[in-house]
């Protein structure tokens, strides 16, 4: 019995002590996020899972706290922050979706000595105000401007931004960015706001694009605020007989838009690269807690990533692995 | 059983005066239930020709509103019939994406034969319609509430299954030539083939509703359900059939969209709920049931589509589109109502 077991037991105990000691010091990070049953948050979740490997290698741990519904977004997210605080975590990564509801809880976490990074929703100003160390995410206006610039550099002179959700701050910022971007590159742009009666009706969107193109022959670029709208816009361009003359772009992408980029009937798609948001946010936070590193780049923008003919193959490879 | 019930005398309030039109007269034409809807449409046409451009009536321009009208119209007919019968079905809002996702997942993602996808799509419509119909008939819960429940239930089911099976919320679909030809191609590069389905369905509905006993049964149900049942009309069975019709029609439209646009999204189609009800009301169907006509719904749908798409042929700032749509639709309904009350209170001069 005896010698072997005693030794094993001693070894096991030492290991347990070491482990306990390292847990006490290493980063314990909670990531608050959306339900992983939608495509976007599935990619965020993959970023969390991949960064966890590094954190665990250093003795820390990462947990993903997800909302059960989006019905009560702000208060529910604030509730998850309080859950994380009570679990005694050392770091929190959270989207600042509804500042009015979440700010108080985030401040409480910061005041309690927990390091916070805002991810996906928020801004650098907000991070500074709350005492968070950084913002990792995208900026709709900058993404739009990159799209407008891409059109301009590709030779488009008059770009139409099809907005199926006029009045929504995010979408307005995207279209404004596109128009400013293409204007700076020497072209012009305008927005086509569609009435609510057209939302989710691909035929109505396609016909609106077709009619606008046939009324204004100078339009040579069309961009939509969502991947599904791009399916409809592609049909509108084709019906107007302007597949050669009018180039199509979209915010975000789906399988059909990647197919179009591959076969040349869509010029590009703008991606905010959600995988990078969680991957970078968790890694930066863990490294800050474990080793005291501090990234001087603020905010950390994960988009816009442009998907076009030049990188479509590697994007498709990323899609098949669940990261794009 | 059917022939017996049909032969029983049925008191029908406000039924279309199809049999009374033995002698043709202009006045008689204006007193038909669809006359108001036609005048509403006429007014809308005049407006957009005056403020827009003539492109609006050329083939490419006409396709703009005909395509929208056809997609909407196929759903608007059964919705209109349900409203005439005193019921409502708002679950169509999620049946449209359910239809497009079903065919896209089966035939696009799994690559199974398109006919299987089409059969499954229509089968799903029948199942959801049966669920709606039985719940309404058996529980006596208002159909608005029942279909509100199935609206969300089906939407959740589609989202959940789509993510579970495919990992995404948007699935691409490349339909083979024949399916494209029948359900999702552009005739002359601009007219969706669904327009022909819509026209054919219009003819069938006109026959069934206005020239067969079933039509009178539906009007009788909307007028007074208890009396209709006492008169021997199988009201429960008819209600269930109408719900199956609306869910299947919505699934059909969703399927055609997926085949046409080569892609299906989980979130789409909610605007069809309001749009179809608006079209039906603009077409002269009473929200309280018992009054309306297929031709009226046909004109109402075109009116809605013209108002919705006509704006792109005008020079108005696009930010005003919703305002113009609202005002035009209200005017169309008012015009329709005025004509209906004139028609209903009309009494021929004594000779």
TrEMBL record, chain A:
It is found in: Periplasm. InterPro entries: Bact_Solute-Bind_Prot2, Peripla_BP_I, SBP_2_dom. One of its GO terms (molecular function) is carbohydrate binding. GO terms for cellular component: outer membrane-bounded periplasmic space. Residues 1-26 form the signal peptide. It comes from the Bacteria. The keyword ATP-binding does not apply. Keywords: Signal. Residues 29-290 form the Periplasmic binding protein domain. The keyword Lipid biosynthesis does not apply. SUPFAM superfamilies: Periplasmic binding protein-like I (SSF53822). Belongs to the bacterial solute-binding protein 2 family. This is Substrate-binding domain-containing protein. It comes from Shinella kummerowiae.
From TrEMBL, chain B:
Keywords: Cell inner membrane, Cell membrane, Membrane, Sugar transport, Transmembrane, Transmembrane helix, Transport. Its main location: membrane. One of its GO terms (molecular function) is transmembrane transporter activity. It is a multi-pass membrane protein. One of its GO terms (cellular component) is plasma membrane. The keyword Transmembrane applies. It is found in: Cell membrane. The chain crosses the membrane at residues 35-54, 66-85, 92-112, 118-137, 144-166, 186-208, 238-260, 266-287, 320-339. InterPro entries: ABC_transp_permease. Part of the binding-protein-dependent transport system for D-xylose. Probably responsible for the translocation of the substrate across the membrane. This is Xylose transport system permease protein XylH. It comes from Shinella kummerowiae.
């Amino acid at each position: 019995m005896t010698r072997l077991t005693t030794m094993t037991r001693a070894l096991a105990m030492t290991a347990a002590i070491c482990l306990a000691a390292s847990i006490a010091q290493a980063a314990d990070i909670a990531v608050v996020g959306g339900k992983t049953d939608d495509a976007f948050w599935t990619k965020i979740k993959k970023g969390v899972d991949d960064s966890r490997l590094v954190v665990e290698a250093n003795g820390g741990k990462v947990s993903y706290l997800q909302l059960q519904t989006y019905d009560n977004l702000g208060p529910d997210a604030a509730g998850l922050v309080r859950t994380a605080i009570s679990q005694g975590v050392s770091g929190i990564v959270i989207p600042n979706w509804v500042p009015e509801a979440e700010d108080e809880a985030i401040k409480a976490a910061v005041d309690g000595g927990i390091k916070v990074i805002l991810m996906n929703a928020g801004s650098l100003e907000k991070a500074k105000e709350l005492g968070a160390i950084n913002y990792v995410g995208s900026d709709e206006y900058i993404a739009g401007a990159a799209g407008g610039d891409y059109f301009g550099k590709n030779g488009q002179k008059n770009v139409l931004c099809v907005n199926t959700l006029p009045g929504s701050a995010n979408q307005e910022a995207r279209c404004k960015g596109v128009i400013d971007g293409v204007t700076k590159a020497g072209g012009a742009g305008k927005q086509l706001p569609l009435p609510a009666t057209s939302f989710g009706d691909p035929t109505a969107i396609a016909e609106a694009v077709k009619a606008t193109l046939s009324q204004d022959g100078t339009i040579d670029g069309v961009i939509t605020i969502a991947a599904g709208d791009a399916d409809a816009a592609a049909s509108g361009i084709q019906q107007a007989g302007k597949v050669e003359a009018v180039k199509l772009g979209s915010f975000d992408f789906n399988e059909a838009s990647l197919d179009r980029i591959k076969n040349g009937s869509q010029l590009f798609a703008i991606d905010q690269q959600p995988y990078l948001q969680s991957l970078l946010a968790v890694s930066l936070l863990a490294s800050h807690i474990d080793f005291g590193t501090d990234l001087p780049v603020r905010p950390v923008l994960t988009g816009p990533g442009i998907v076009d003919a030049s990188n479509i193959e590697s994007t498709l490879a990323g899609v098949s692995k669940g990261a794009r | 059983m059917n022939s017996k019930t049909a032969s029983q005398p049925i008191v029908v309030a406000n039924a279309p005066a199809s049999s009374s039109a033995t002698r043709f007269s202009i006045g008689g034409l204006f007193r038909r239930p669809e006359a108001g809807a036609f005048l509403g449409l006429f007014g809308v046409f005049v407006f957009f020709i005056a403020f827009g451009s003539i492109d609006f009536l050329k083939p490419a321009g006409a396709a703009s509103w005909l395509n929208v009208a056809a997609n909407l119209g196929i759903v608007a007919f059964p919705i209109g019939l349900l409203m005439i019968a005193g019921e409502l079905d708002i679950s169509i809002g999620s049946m449209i994406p359910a239809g497009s996702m079903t065919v896209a997942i089966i035939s696009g993602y799994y690559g199974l034969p398109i006919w299987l996808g089409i059969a499954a799509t229509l089968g799903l419509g029948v199942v959801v319609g049966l669920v709606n119909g039985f719940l309404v008939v058996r529980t006596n819960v208002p159909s608005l509430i029942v279909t509100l429940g199935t609206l969300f239930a089906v939407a959740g089911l589609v989202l959940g299954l789509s993510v579970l099976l495919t990992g995404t919320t948007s699935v691409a679909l490349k339909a083979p030539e024949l399916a494209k030809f029948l359900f999702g191609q552009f005739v002359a590069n601009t007219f969706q083939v669904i327009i022909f389905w819509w026209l054919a369905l219009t003819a069938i509905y006109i026959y069934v509703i206005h020239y067969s006993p079933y039509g009178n049964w539906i009007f009788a149900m909307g007028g007074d359900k208890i009396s209709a049942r006492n008169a021997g009309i199988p009201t429960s069975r008819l209600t269930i059939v109408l719900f199956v019709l609306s869910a299947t029609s919505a699934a059909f439209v969703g399927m055609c969209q997926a085949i046409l646009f080569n892609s299906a999204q989980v979130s789409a189609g909610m605007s069809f709920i309001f749009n179809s009800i608006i079209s039906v009301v603009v077409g002269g169907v009473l929200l309280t049931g018992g009054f309306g006509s297929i031709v009226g719904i046909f004109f109402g749908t075109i009116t809605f589509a013209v108002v919705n798409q006509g704006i792109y042929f005008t020079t108005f700032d696009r930010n005003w589109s919703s305002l113009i749509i609202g005002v035009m639709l209200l005017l169309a309904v008012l015009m329709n109502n005025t004509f209906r009350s004139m028609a209903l209170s009309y009494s021929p001069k004594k000779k």
